[in-house]
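Reply to dn_fold:

You asked what the input looked like. This is it:
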Amino acid sequence: MNIFQTQMDLSNEVKQLSPVKLPRYDVEGEKIHICKIFDFESMIDDYMVELEIRNYSQNTIKTYHSILQNFHEYLKGEEKLFTERQFLATFRKFIQTLKQEKHVTQNYIYLNTVVCKKFLDFHDIHFLEEIKNPKRTKSLPKSLNEKEVQDLINAVDWEAEETPNKKRSKIRDKVILALLYSTGLRISELTGLISRDIDFDERTIRVRGKGEKDRIVLFDEKTKDLLMEYLDLRDSDSEYLFTNRQDNKLSSRYVQIMIKKYADKAGIRKKVTPHILRHSFATHLLKNGVDIRVIQQLLGHSSLATTQIYTSVDMDTIKTLYDHAKE
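and this is what came back:
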């Protein structure tokens, strides 16, 4: 249904679907640009507030805001934008520009389409109603094997004569790598960890995940020893477990760069990111016989379907079973 047209209902009465009729004209009879009819900046701000109320994560809100701002800038650059059909054509050109000039992934095209449609629908503007969501690419998550994970963690070492600050930083980095692998935390969850939420007796951490949902994750004995050593050396009044030299919460960017540095040092040629360590955590649990519903709970997935992708990952196990069957 198009709100900028009229349509006959079953009683044959004309129903006006929008208070705004396009195109609109100024006092001189000139067509008014859509960006002057709709205050998109304020509308974006209102939508961000709505996402906050719905408990969307800060990373998601930041991504949505960036997408909508980019689209708004593109709209402002279009000279002839007076009607719904022109808006629709402009959106198609915007997506084409992302693909051909920005070389973004198919999944990012999907995200832009979904976000823009949700935003407009929230404001009862249905310009993009006939746009179908593009297909997403479905690739298996990459992971490290057990040896590569250990090589990565062991790449963080220090000398006895190093300064206390240097040693403390390196122990912190090693704890981060060990925690990401032993808990399966998202990077935003890791940087948001609060020291008081750690239970050393039970080897658990209370984590605030997506949608402001709490869950409990586990860590192993080696990680426990590292954590205790780190906290003994830590000199900070911050509630956050991981801080920088200014005693501020550690940034996700730092963690990403740090992981790449130690992956290079360990001689790992694969791309290594916090999310790949999360994939590795789930893959190795599955390989060692842990029930997929337990993995779902540890990862904080709301849907089992999201977790089930890991059943397609462990090719080494599949090969072993295949070879055994052929003996």
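The chain has 14 helices and five strands.
Hope that clears it up.
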